[in-house]
Amino acid sequence: TMAKINQIMNSGLGLDIAVPVMSGAFVQTTNTGATISWSTNEPARGHAYYDTTPLRSDEATAHMQQPYVSGIYASTNDGAPLSQSISLTGLQPNTLYYYINRAIDNSGNLTMTLQNTFRTNP
Q: According to the model, what pLDDT value does residue 101 have?
């Protein structure tokens, strides 16, 4: 019946269709660097985009395509832990930076934060 078909389709057919949930984000800064950290509810690879100008992001338009985000890309490069930490170096002192975090689980499900800012120390 249609009810059974809808139930099967909504179950994800046994696939992981849930995006990682990000929480506890914080930024620690120095005069020439910053560390962006957060946790996820499942193992995920962490990424960050940052720049001194506001970032632009465009939604994905095809299956398994990741959304485009402008700015400088940084990655955790340490597998898929429950907590991510990305160190940014070579930043300018006393400068406002814009950033977006994202997390991708092992099934390719992706979540992104809204754009945030931090200022490096003088």
A: 94
